[in-house]
Specification:
The chain is built from seven helices and eleven strands. By secondary structure, it is an alpha+beta fold. Strands 4-5-6-7-8-9-10-11 form an eight-stranded antiparallel barrel. Strand 5 (180-193) and strand 6 (199-209) form a beta hairpin. The radius of gyration is 21 Å and the shape is globular.
Length: 275
């Protein structure tokens, strides 16, 4: 199974096999309209995608596809038209992809064995939920301006202790030069009231402490949050005041469970303690 990465749009991550995203980039780069409308993004993606040292890498957050890098409210519809043209013009089947790879002028610049390896590594995907289906998901997101139906529950409903039941990855934390070793990817999230403006979100992971030789919870993230328009807005307390860092979508809220993301890691949480 191919590793997962994400399409990033409106500060939301839609988790997708990395080979699917590579073929999506391949099709987008083949569309002349994309180069004309988004010349800087096209040049950046192309320079990495057709990079001899890492064919298919793609730029714009590496193996992920960060649409927020070049899309804003003024040009989303223009990109949506490009995606619509791709959906109308191509089947995006494995046979078609092979033919496009063979015909690609850009790929003719590479050694045949390197192109063959790139094709072999990335062509292994489920055609029942393949490249075209992911373009259709992307098109719906572009039209609706969201991948998910965001939740608009009051932040008081999120107060309490939550434990992740599913994680797409591990929270990034540098354990070098510490006495800790992470024990799995599960996260405990505690949301508590700070003052009239902010709540505090504390993200804890289970670690082994080599000093005490015991397992313990370690807070690897702590932010001051507000909640509006379906997003947790994360801030850090600095000497100059509260600094806005990023926002996380909240969706599929069902009183005892909800889903959210921290950066490019997705979580499903279940309530373990009421606020």
């Amino acid at each position: 199974m191919a590793k997962e990465t994400a399409i990033l749009f409106k500060d939301q991550a839609y988790f997708t096999p990395v080979n699917i995203i590579r073929w999506m980039k391949f099709y987008i780069l083949s569309e002349e309209a994309f180069t004309k409308v988004f010349p800087e993004a096209s040049a950046e993606i192309s320079s990495y995608f057709f990079w001899d040292q890492h064919l298919g890498y793609g730029g714009l957050a590496g193996d992920s596809f960060n649409l927020d890098h070049f899309l804003d409210n003024s040009n989303i519809d223009r990109f949506s038209m490009i995606v619509a043209a791709l959906l109308d013009s191509y089947s995006m089947s494995k046979e078609e992809i092979r033919a496009k790879v063979i015909a690609s002028e850009k790929l003719k610049e590479f050694e045949r064995i390197k192109v063959a390896r790139f094709l072999a590594v990335n062509i292994d995907f489920d055609e029942a939920f393949g490249v075209k289906e992911h373009f259709e998901i992307l098109q719906r997101a572009l039209q609706k301006r969201t991948f998910y139906e965001l939740s608009h529950t009051p932040i008081e409903d999120l107060e309490g202790e939550w434990t992740s039941t599913y994680e797409t990855g591990a929270l990034d934390y540098n354990y070098n030069m510490t006495d800790f070793m992470a024990l799995g990817k599960q996260v405990k999230l505690v949301i508590s009231k700070h003052d009239q403006r902010f709540y505090i979100s504390t993200w804890l992971v289970k670690v082994y402490d080599y000093t005490s030789r015991e397992e313990r919870d370690l807070a690897v993230r702590q932010t001051y949050v507000t909640f509006r328009n379906g997003y947790l807005h994360h801030h850090y307390d600095t000497e100059g005041g509260f600094y806005f860092s990023h926002r996380s979508p909240v969706f599929d809220y069902k009183v005892e469970t909800f889903q959210t993301q921290f950066g490019d890691v997705g979580f499903t949480f279940r309530r373990t303690l009421q606020g």
